[in-house]
């Protein structure tokens, strides 16, 4: 017994030493990681509800109006009126309650990560959710990913404030985790959500072991919740394509270079339209709301007979992959969607640009595939492989995030065998856009937001 006492005493000291060190250690990293998991799950729930609600409103509008209006000549005016009302409600909420909820919201989050923009979650969360329902439900050419990313980051700020965490570095970490969770939920793509933070938000994201772990955990828990509700299937069920033959890889490089030019044109035209819209609005609520009603109404009316031209774009991607369109139709749809997407987004609507970019990239990739098939009939070419490569390439050229675009499309389509041609296309698009001195879209939008904010402060100071 006397021999066991020293051993038992030393064991007790050892265990007490562990407990004492655990008590005295900094619990902040553990708390942040647990919060990241909770935030990710909450964002997954809200993001999934947002997707279900926007889909229901859009489907209800497009099916109920034709059922209620028996006269075929009145269907278009009726659809215009219903879509206009939905859009005007959205624009009014944005202008009167939460101006920072306009647009995709991603530049706002990038500004918040630099402590340049406030995060007013108590007004952004309800306005972005309801405003997004109105703008996306009206049939405007917008995506739900931008709103979901902004919702995710604002939910993070809400938890940060509720738990009264005072560390600013922890705030940045949670904001990034919430944004990653938002993108993961919008596309059922956790890897793309993680990469988006690391690649697109690299100037603002404060790298550390804890912050990267938090982003990964947030993306994982958000995706789990999404799949528990919506299922595990890929967002775009377009079938499997064979890998691209080695002798055709140079064709993907040319496609990427073309997308680099298209991306520059897209950004330039979008920013030009935004300048014109702001000059027209002159800060007046009535002009902003009426313009929203006009754009939303037109999109709803167009969708009665040509739904391929409006909406987020997933339906037109499915039809393109099914071979429903000839090259002439693809050219027309590409030109019209280029116009409708830039108008919808630049007007200040509460909606994102990711989905419209993916649809545009798919359409042009299909056009390119038809041309290549005509020029090189001996090549073993599948038009769908160029369409899939084009999906991520236009995103890479405009946002300047090639790896995010690549992984996003791979996760959405499950065509992992096309990773090499897609990588070539995305990098080609990015390099050409860089050589032409094109700038990332969200960086320019953030600069404009900060400039307008500075001008508004100066005007108030003069008064």
Number of strands: 0
Structural class: mainly alpha
Quaternary state of this entry equals single chain
| Mean of all residue-level pLDDT scores | 90
CATH architecture of the largest domain: Orthogonal Bundle
What's the number of domains?
2
Shape: globular
CATH topology of the largest domain: Clc chloride channel
CATH class of the largest domain: Mainly Alpha
Beta fraction: under 5%
Tally of alpha and pi helices:
18
Quick structural summary:
The protein has two domains: 27-230, Clc chloride channel, CATH 1.10.3080.10; 246-448, Clc chloride channel (Orthogonal Bundle), CATH 1.10.3080.10.
Structure, described:
One of its GO terms (molecular function) is voltage-gated chloride channel activity. InterPro entries: Cl-channel_core, ClC. The protein is mainly alpha-helical. The protein has 18 helices and no strands. It folds into 2 domains: 27-230, Clc chloride channel (Orthogonal Bundle); 246-448, Clc chloride channel. Helix content is 77%, strand content 0%. The radius of gyration is 24 Å and the shape is globular.
Descriptive terms for the model:
463 residues, voltage-gated chloride channel activity, mainly alpha, globular, membrane, Clc chloride channel, Chloride channel protein, Cl-channel_core, 18 helices
